[in-house]
Design brief:
The chain has 448 residues and is mainly α. It is built from 18 helices and no strands. It binds phenylalanine.
């Protein structure tokens, strides 16, 4: 196999930090708490952790193997291993583009809320109605979200333009530890709030009477989105891993970190929500409407809300970088553009899509695709169709199609590492994961 001159990541820690940077994102801090709140708290958490361990982890190892075996972008990687399977790479590039279309918009909101926290604007309101009105006014306004979204896109662009080591790796090394420090500080603060223990109980104490088949499927979808799997991100990142990187350990560490952040986000949010007596199941607006109201009732409210929105920005940024890289690496290597030109092409295209998605919540609200505005259809199409499909076919490809020797060589670093869990791993990839994913997929298409 021909190896072109390609960047590689530094030490062991770099691989973990960069991949965790992709996984940890708005999915953990914005989406996970409200999805858990809607689905029974602690019981959801238990099912979620099972999904991460049984399905997420093997799939991440599989994607790492594909990336490092080929040292190529998502499309090139599948093509190099088996011509017929390059569609899986295209599925990833397309999904990354479409996710960026709405993810950049929500990232822009976090930047706007950060600015409003710092200027004190956010502390001016008191009631939930006022916060709702403010949020709706903001997302529906024609130019303000566009401005913040553009700033976010350009920040992502410049990090990508700096390259794999100086941009992606260096930013992850600074941003990920920062994220942990902020999260732990916020969690401690939240636990000390009056009634905080109530919230913690709701979040950690499983009540299995609330669990049905739909909960399992929701947990699985959340695990996919949160771990960044089924989309080619981990394939692309692993193509920069060193030959001595232990893929199993890296995947295990990333899954643990990702789950830990989701747990900590729950520990930040639920005690705060309970301490002011708000319903934990208030949906996607939990972070943008409920939380600012909660912060407002606290001493030092401006500081806490600024720190919280900074946390969201940091988490979002390391994820948008990974999504951008999937497309940039593809254009650079497959279309033979310079890396710079590929990065600009990606930035330009995502900017147009994100602008349309943002406007679809306001002036372009009349444009509907199957009854959904553009913003919601991008979310639906990626989370409910492209990611589960990508995950399913990855299992089939790696479990059934890929030469077993290639997989073994990657997992054991050419025989240097033992592979005691071989049987379990292969069983999960071949049978259990595809079967469960098929169920999720059919459920998402409304079959049940
Ligand atoms: N995992 C990221 C999050 O939790 C989102 C993401 C999905 C990033 C897919 C890359 C690929 O927010």
């Amino acid at each position: 196999m021909k190896h072109t001159q390609r960047a590689t990541l530094g030490g062991k820690l770099s691989a973990v930090l960069v991949a965790a940077g992709s996984s940890v994102g708005l999915g953990n801090i914005w989406r996970f708490p409200y999805v858990a709140g809607d689905n029974g708290g602690g019981a959801f958490l238990a099912i979620y952790i099972l999904c991460v361990l049984i399905i997420g982890l093997p799939l991440m190892i599989a994607e790492f193997s594909v990336g490092r075996a080929s040292h190529k972008n998502a499309v090139g990687a599948y093509r190099a291993l088996d011509r017929k399977w390059s569609f899986l790479g295209y599925n990833g590039v397309l999904a990354a583009f479409l996710i960026l279309g709405f993810y950049f918009v929500v990232s822009g909101w976090t930047a706007e809320y950060m600015v409003h926290s710092v200027t004190g604007e956010l502390a001016r309101y008191t009631t939930a109605e006022e916060y709702t009105a403010m949020f709706e006014r903001f997302i529906g306004s024609p130019w303000r979200p566009l401005l913040y979204t553009s700033v976010f896109i350009l920040a992502t662009h410049f990090i990508i333009a700096l390259g794999v080591q100086k941009g992606i790796e260096r930013s992850a090394k600074v941003l990920m530890p920062l994220l942990f420090v902020i999260l732990v500080a916020l969690a401690i603060h939240s636990l000390l709030m009056p009634n905080g223990a109530e919230g913690l109980k709701f979040f950690l104490k499983p009540d299995f009477s609330k669990i049905g088949p739909a909960t399992v499927l929701t947990a699985l979808g959340q695990a996919f989105f949160s771990l960044s799997i089924g989309i080619g991100t981990m394939v692309t990142y692993a193509s920069y891993f060193k030959p001595e990187t232990n893929l199993r350990h890296t995947a295990l560490n990333v899954t643990i970190l990702d789950t830990l952040v989701a747990l900590l986000a729950g520990i930040v949010i639920f005690p705060a929500v309970f301490s002011v007596g708000i319903e934990p199941s208030s949906g996607p607006s939990l972070v943008f409407i409920t939380l600012p109201g909660i912060f407002n009732g606290m001493p030092w409210s401006m500081v806490w809300s600024s720190v919280f929105f900074l946390l969201l920005i940091v988490a979002a940024l390391t994820s948008t970088i990974s999504l951008h890289e999937v497309i940039t690496a593809y254009m650079h290597e497959e279309w033979h553009l310079s890396r710079k030109a590929a990065a600009w092409a990606t930035t330009g295209a995502t900017m147009v899509l994100a602008a349309l998605a943002s406007l679809s919540l306001g002036v372009l609200n009349g444009w509907k695709i199957c009854g959904l505005n553009l913003f919601d259809s991008l979310d639906y199409l990626t989370a409910n169709i492209l990611l589960p499909a990508g995950g399913f076919f990855t299992c089939i490809f790696v479990g059934w199609r890929l030469d077993r020797k290639v997989l073994e060589a990657q997992v054991t670093n050419d025989g240097h590492l033992p592979f005691r869990i071989r049987k379990v791993f292969v069983f999960l990839l071949r049978y259990l994961c595809p079967a469960v994913l098929l169920l999720v997929f059919l459920d998402n298409l409304g079959a049940f």
